[in-house]
Amino acid sequence: MRGFQFSPWNLLLIIPLLVLITSLFNSDGPRLFGMPFFYWFQFVFVAVGVLCTWIVYVMTKDKPTSERPDRLSVDELDEGDVK
Known about the structure:
By secondary structure, the chain is mostly helical. 42% of the residues lie in helices and 0% in strands. It has a domain at 8-62. It has helices at residues 14-20, 37-60, 74-77. The longest helix has 24 residues, at 37-60. The chain crosses the membrane at residues 37-59.
């Protein structure tokens, strides 16, 4: 067993897990532009979720999706069957 290893995909778990803990933001104050804390803090969760998704995209866009090389040739990828 290797222990805990950080993966950028772990960032995508932050928002759903925090939203489940409603006691963190289940209050009326402080108000922002007349909006109760419960509502504007959920908007903050949306922004943080978008930020986490962007960070995961940037950190993983250059990584290969599989470890083994692609063994298909150009002829095998051709849509038409030429004989």
